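ok trying this again, last paste got cut off
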Amino acid sequence: MTMTAKQEKLAALFKAATVIPVLTIERLEDAVPLARALVAGGVRTLEVTLRTPVAADAAKAMISEVPEAIVGIGTILNPADLARAEALGAKFGISPGGTPDLLKAAAGSALPFAPGIATASELMQALAFGFDLAKFFPAEQAGGIKGLRALGGPFPNVRFCPTGGVGEANAATWLAEPNVLAVGGSWLCPTAEVKAGNWAGITAICQRTLKSLKAG
């Protein structure tokens, strides 16, 4: 698959998703019921971050037991993480930033990938490797919507998935920006609800969020 084809595949996936929950899973036994709760709420595209010891196994369980879910891997920090994501059968990869080594590996990988950027220089580096779809992170701390609009001036063809400070209250505002395909965040699956096993509550949050975004 060409670089352009990979980027367009990821763009279509993000656009269809609208909202991508960022999942930091502490207990393996939560993985499958959490994925099912999100899917039941209409949220199928999931980012499992490599931030915990059970993350890879959690993603593997979701992929094998919840086929309706589109599982990607986040917090990819280096080529080894990227290789793990591919081996797990992830549908996409996301990083909080981008080193030349990681960008080179991702450009040569079959995995659709969105590198994280916060500045014009970081975006230029991503573009040099062929990435015109990026994660804007940390979105609010990196200038918020004004910062995103500023990047849109010199880089009008770049598309973004803002993450970091995005929540139910401001998701619609971010999604109204013409260069935003989707937003990412953890508000769809609050830690307290996951710990309590309140899967119906998580489904309800997803349904409420999607309903409010469609209404907007």
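PB: full thing came through this time. The beta strands are 19-23, 45-49, 70-74, 93-94, 113-114, 116-117, 133-136, 159-162, 183-185.
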